[in-house]
Amino acid sequence: DAGVTQSPTHLIKTRGQQVTLRCSPKSGHDTVSWYQQALGQGPQFIFQYYEEEERQRGNFPDRFSGHQFPNYSSELNVNALLLGDSALYLCASSFGDRGMGYGYTFGSGTRLTVV
Amino acid sequence: GEDVEQSLFLSVREGDSSVINCTYTDSSSTYLYWYKQEPGAGLQLLTYIFSNMDMKQDQRLTVLLNKKDKHLSLRIADTQTGDSAIYFCAETANYGGSQGNLIFGKGTKLSVKP
Questions:
Q1: Which listed site, A53, A101, B6, B62, has its alpha carbon 20 to 30 Å from B89?
Q2: Average pLDDT of the segment spanning B83-103
Q3: B residues 16..55 contacting A (CB < 8 A)
């Protein structure tokens, strides 16, 4: 049974560009949450998608947007990239729209470097 | 706002016990968690404790919760070199648009020396 799959694993982008990160949830899960983990920091919640809608959002600017597809997979889009957006982006899947922590399965993340 | 704090580094000898400490601010947190992150990997849930419990034991792991002091600890018995990793304490967010999601500390890097 595959866990959470994220692609790509690594990415290098230039300031001002746009990036799309992808996540396939664990089989049986219908909720996807995205977290940003800067170097030396703990993960910070970006937003959560359930039933193809953004249900919850953390303290991130509108440059961060997302989408969830009917098959529950999700994309994270970041526009107008800044150097400070360099981080490990983690996707977590769960069942149900509250996604309590004991139900989360995390992917291995996408390492984004902005130069 | 909510905040989770933990010490950044801990070094122990193989076979000793490790104790990683954490303080949190939101007294209404219903669940508190410990996650493990190995290099190049995502987060692995180690254990969690419900806020009405004082202690939870799971094989080599013991979680102690002092709700009055908002203090959480993780004890790893008979620490092995394979336990070397970063350990994150996390609480559930309970306000605004982030209810139910996780607030993480900065992580404690555990180094186990043979």
A1: A53
A2: 80
A3: 31, 33, 35, 40-45, 48
